[in-house]
Amino acid sequence: MTRWGLIGASTIAKEWVIGAIRATGGEIVSVMSTNAERGRAYADAQGIAKSVTTLADLVNDPEIDAVYISTTNELHRDQALAAARAGKHILCEKPLAMSLEDARGMVKAAQDAGVVMATNHHLRNAATHGAMRAAIKAGRIGQPLSARVFHAVYLPPHLQGWRLDKPEAGGGVILDITVHDADTLRFVLDANPVEAIAFSQAGGMGKAGLEDAVMGVLRFENGVIAQFHDGFTTKFAETGLEVHGTDGSLIGRNVMSQRAAGTVTLRDANGEQELPLDHRNLYETALAAFHVAIAGKGQPSATGEDGVWSLAAGLAVVEAARTGRTVSIEPGL
């Protein structure tokens, strides 16, 4: 059994990750919050025995094997480095860090310490995206030419906070959502993005100059061009991912979701057919793979290196939107 410590008494841990850890055979030993009262209340509500207020108390706990980092983005680096030094396996929320240098340093620290490091990119665990990847690999749409992601949603009030008013914490829609698009496209297309161009928007939700929507295009090493639309401001939109090839198209609807849901339709010369899907909890799939990786029998569904790639793409989109120029994507791995 893997024994876990939570770095951050977060909403995502409460809503998704705690349940996934327990469902896949893990045990949660402790949670860290710098606010002692909040940490204690969180631990009591989630059935966690211990709550601590310092990073050192959590990572140096001999009863903990792995940590889940879900604090705000600017804190990830130091927390991951401390966990690696303490010999703890690391599952870190995206984006890994605020800079590529920091993200690469986190991955190297984990490698040097001999611990598993993963990025919590949940969408690549969806049955929909797995089916699309398999269909492309099987040649069912011929040569992929283009893709389209629509991942513009409405950010509910209980999640707004720092995402809309703290640029120093990596707020804004690009580092929150566009990084997920980049990772999902890398997974589905089995190719890396090489260039980005984008326009951002301030539609009234983002404060302190933060963007709350963005549109742009990624160009991939295999020639595919992928359009994306991300937002916090669209209350009534649906999400989707399409990939179009020389011999067919894959149409995914309501697939950019934390929920195990959505459909994938293949359109080709024979008409339309819906691909069979085995929907399973995305986070449980991720945690099962992580536990297997700790046992030395596989690797996480999204590695630390995958997190560096998605951050590189996100930072390129940020720069492209700021300058109006095409920006190269260079993870430096």
Automatic annotation (TrEMBL):
Residues 3-121 form the Gfo/Idh/MocA-like oxidoreductase N-terminal domain. It comes from the Bacteria. Keywords: Oxidoreductase. Residues 131-250 form the GFO/IDH/MocA-like oxidoreductase domain. GO terms for molecular function: nucleotide binding; oxidoreductase activity. Coiled coil: none annotated. This is Gfo/Idh/MocA family oxidoreductase.
